[in-house]
Amino acid sequence: MDDWHRTVQTYGQLYYAQPPNALIADLTADLLEVGRLLQDPRTGLPRNELLRVGSQLTALMATDFNDAGNRRSARLAWQTARRTADASEDRNLSVWVRAREADCLFWQDQPRSMIAALLDDALGQAQGTPSTGRAMALEVRAKLAALDGRSADAIQALNELADTYERLPDHATTAGAIGSSVGTSYPEASVHRSAAYVYAFLADTKKAPVAIDRAIATYPSNLAGGNLRLIQALSAVHGGDLTHALQDALRIAEGVRQLTPMRQLIIRRIVDAVPRESANLPMVRELRALAHPVNA
């Protein structure tokens, strides 16, 4: 089982280093092996632990499908991840899988009712108990409210997230776990990242720059890349620094092989925040073309 837990963590690291869809073949092979082990009673491996690993690997696969724009495959994978997490009897994993799916739907700009239902389910299962899954669910709730302009709801969720983080055990908040954790950690950097997103979406020109700088400072240097920089560009547009913000956003967008739904949504917000008199600038037109919705 230790080998399988290390395998999950390795995939968690690889996810941030590979382009969308790059992990699907390997994940499929490992999931087939987990399925075989579940059917073979002679292995002596604990069934709940195998189910837990299967759910984590399937959630990673679903996330990769989401990033690649393969919504149907992602939807089926999320269903399997949820069922498997529930069967493992790991409540935190069940909460986290639903919150992670809600996060993917959030970045895809899917119907709010779908996202809210998943969050309600996740937070209902959490029952107020501090966990990494509950932290993830509160993060998504805060971002969703901020994107809709519901400032009070966004700040309330952000405050609940901070409170949940403070009550997590030390092993769940270690910075070293970021980028490799699949539902097992929620480090301080994630709290600051969430605040950066929320205040930028709320167009708070005082709090957003501070929150973004703090997030970039606390995030590992190898992971504080395009997403936070795009949020920084969004905040800069709200603050009136149009030229530099558009240049930065375009550089980031053109520097990746494929724009993920996350980056597409942020770029759309950047384009929407541009003043009407500047809407036809060449850089704005280029960003608008890059930010087209992902096909189902």
Overview of the molecule:
With 296 residues, the protein is mainly α. The protein folds into three domains: 1-89, no CATH class; 91-210; 225-296, no CATH class. Helices cover 71% and strands 0% of the residues. Helix 6 packs antiparallel against helix 7 (132-147) and helix 7 packs antiparallel against helix 8 (151-166). The longest helix has 22 residues, at 47-68. The two termini are 36 Å apart.
Provide tags for this entry.
globular, mainly alpha, 296 residues, 3 domains
Average pLDDT, rounded to a whole number, is 91
The helical percent reads: over 70%
Q: Note the gap between the termini.
A: 36 Å
User: How would you describe the shape?
Assistant: globular
Number of helices: 14
Query: Which spans have pLDDT < 50 for at least 5 consecutive residues?
Result: none
Instruction: Tell me the structural class.
Output: mainly alpha
Q: Strand content of the residues, in percent?
A: under 5%
Number of domains: 3
Based on CA atoms alone, the radius of gyration comes out at 19 Å
Query: Biggest β-sheet: count, sense, barrel?
Result: none
The SSE string, one letter per element, is HHHHHHHHHHHHHH
E-strand count = 0
